[in-house]
Each structure stands twice: as structure tokens, then as C-alpha cells.
Design goal:
Elements lengths: L8 E2 L4 E2 L1 H8 L7 E5 L12 H14 L2 E6 L8 H4 L1 H9 L3 E6 L12 E6 L3 H18 L6 H10 L2 H33 L6 H4 L4 E3 L4 H11 L8 E3 L7 H11 L3
Parallel strand pairs: 3-4, 4-5
Antiparallel strand pairs: 1-2, 5-6, 7-8
Helix pairs in contact: 2-4, 7-10
């Protein structure tokens, strides 16, 4: 299967390189599948705005490409409804859409690997073909997987009281991550006298890409025992009030 990449992250602004993204997506052809993150982009933390989603939809309409939307962190960014807005816009505009929605993170059942694949088809014939193909792939991969996670999600979403409790807890998680982002951005601004880390407060989700070089990432590990993957993806959810100042100083000490 032939694969191609499209530009997305702007290393200078730490935001979305949107014009470049649209240019690359414009080269897609009918039948091509374009992978998109619905919200809380992993690994960068930089996300599309709703008007930008509309422009992406227009490009996909023009090229005939099929979007595959990875919705792994719904509720961690701007809220359950807001985080699904881009996905819903795409689904309302295009005749054929694939959506992979995960419950592993936002339900706190990561080890259960729980989620759902949704397929929007333009007509009955395509729907039946898609359903048959997915059934075949299911049979080849795992046939009848354990359904503990799926049962838990069904139980929670089907009970108004449990659903309300889950939504409240998820909102608390979301606000905690936003607070950590703001704290880290503020700590870096106060210590550096610069607002160049302001993007951390603008990003959403569990992760942000700092923009550090592999050598700087290695220095963080060797000199400060701070670990992140080589592309400088930082796990915001792993921070707390005590470690934010420590991380901020280490970032500056390593010349990031």
C-alpha cells in the first residue's frame, strides 16, 4: 500500500501549518484515505479551528478522498461537544467517512483498548460492501474479543446518573490539563522573560511538541532525569504543581 505524508506542524510557530497542509491535501485522489486527528492532536497538541475544518472538508470534497478521523481524546480539549465539532462537520459534508473513536482514555480503561469504528457510506451497496469487509477483518484479527471495556462504556452511557458522573469527572480531568498548560507557560514566561512558550497554553490534549532538538531531549534526560520521546513530545498529563517549576527550569537550562 502506497503511503504519503502531508505537512501539518509549523516548527517555528508551534501551530498548524495550515496553508501547507491544504496544498498537500490538494494532491489527494479519489479513493485515497486521508488520516486526520479529530481533536487534541498527538503528538503536537496543535489543532484545527472549526473554519479550518470547513476548508479541509472542501478540499476532500474536491479531490474525492476519504477521511479517516482518529478521535482518541474526545473531552480532553475543549469539551465533549466542541471536540467532536470538526468530525461532525466532515461527516455532514462528505458522502463517505471513516471514524475511529476510542474510549480507552476518556473512560480511563486504557488496558481494555475499547472503541468503535464508524463508517458513513453514500449508498446501500457501499454500506453492505464496507460491512462485509469489516466483518472479514474482524474475523481475521480477533473474531470475538473480550467485551469488558465495551460493557463498561455501554453501562455508563446508558444510565443518566452514571453518564452525568462520568462527564463531570472528564471535565475535571480536562480542566486540570488546561491548568497545567497555563501554569507551565506562565512559569516559562516568568523565568525566561519571553512569551515564546505561549503555545503550550494554546495547545489542547495530553501532548505538546516542545520543538527541542534530539540533542536537547538527550540533555533533559542525562542532566535532569526528564524523559520524553525524541521529537520532544511532552506529556502534559504527567505534570503536577510540584514538577511544573522543575520542568520549566530544566527546559531553559538545556537551551530550548
Amino acid at each position: 500500500m502506497k503511503q504519503a505524508t502531508y505537512r501539518y506542524f509549523d516548527a517555528e510557530t508551534r501551530g498548524v501549518s495550515f496553508a501547507a497542509m491544504l496544498e498537500d491535501l490538494g494532491h489527494a485522489a479519489p479513493g485515497d484515505v486521508v488520516l486526520l486527528h479529530g481533536c487534541c492532536h498527538n503528538p503536537t497538541g496543535a489543532n484545527l479551528t472549526l473554519p479550518e475544518w470547513a476548508e479541509v472538508a472542501a478540499v476532500l470534497e474536491r479531490t474525492g478522498a476519504i477521511p479517516l478521523i482518529d478521535l482518541a481524546y474526545q473531552g480532553f480539549g475543549d469539551g465533549l461537544e466542541a471536540d467532536a465539532a470538526g468530525t461532525r462537520l466532515i461527516a455532514s459534508r462528505l458522502p463517505e467517512v471513516l471514524i475511529a473513536a476510542s474510549c480507552s482514555k476518556n473512560f480511563g480503561i486504557y488496558r481494555e483498548r475499547t472503541g468503535v469504528l464508524l463508517a458513513l457510506a453514500p449508498d446501500t451497496a457501499v454500506r453492505e460492501l464496507t460491512q462485509g469487509t469489516l466483518a472479514f477483518l474482524n474475523r481475521q484479527n480477533y473474531s470475538f474479543p473480550p467485551d469488558h471495556g465495551a460493557r463498561l462504556v455501554t453501562m455508563i452511557l446508558g444510565d443518566p446518573a452514571l453518564r452525568a458522573e462520568w462527564e463531570a469527572e472528564l471535565e475535571e480531568v480536562r480542566m486540570t490539563m488546561l491548568g497545567l498548560r497555563e501554569d507551565l507557560a506562565r512559569e516559562l514566561r516568568d523565568r525566561s522573560g519571553s512569551d515564546r512558550f505561549g503555545f503550550l497554553a494554546q495547545h489542547r490534549g495530553m501532548f505538546s511538541r516542545l520543538g527541542a532538538s534530539p540533542e536537547q531531549v538527550e540533555r533533559l534526560r542525562a542532566e535532569h532525569a526528564i524523559y520524553m520521546v525524541g521529537d520532544s513530545r511532552l506529556n502534559i498529563a504527567g505534570l503536577n504543581a510540584r514538577t511544573v517549576p522543575v520542568l520549566a527550569q530544566a527546559i531553559l537550562d538545556c537551551g530550548i
